[in-house]
Every structure is written in C-alpha cells, then in structure tokens.
Fold Protein kinase domain-containing protein.
Amino acid sequence: MNLNEDWYQTAIEKYKINTIIYNELSERQTRIGRGGFGIIFKTKYKSEIIAIKEIPISAEDDEPSIKKFIKELKIHSRVKHERIITFHGISRS
C-alpha cells in the first residue's frame, strides 16, 4: 500500500475516524492561527462554530511522517475531556 496516497482511507477504515463531507463546512472560513502542522480556521459545521486545521499532505511526505499523523488522528478522535477541543473528524477538499 502506498501510504502517501491511501492515508485517508487507512484513517477511516483501520482506525474508524469519522469523516466530514467538505461541502458541509461553511464556505466562510476565517484564518485564526498557524501551527507546526498547518493553518487553523474558524468556520461553521452543522450550526456549530468549530476550528479546522488544514494540513498539506503530499506525495513527497515520507511514510513515517504520515504514520505519525494518522496516529495523532487516532488519539485525538478518542480523547474526551472538558479541557480538550472536541475532535469531530477528517475531511478532504
């Protein structure tokens, strides 16, 4: 399997990560920050204000980096705590 191309399906199928249809996110997105892994935007999803992180993943990314990213998705999708931002899922544009 070429993980660079199939990371999205791997995350969904192997780790049961929830998916969000990109078109269901509001078109109006406000940039609110930038981190080591990407750009953070504020938008609306199902009448709720949420933050989304845009992370560029390309064919040039090495397999260990993509595996680390998928592992973080898995962890964030399972953490439930009042002081941690709720993880809703992943999407692709």
Observations:
- The chain has a mean pLDDT of 84.
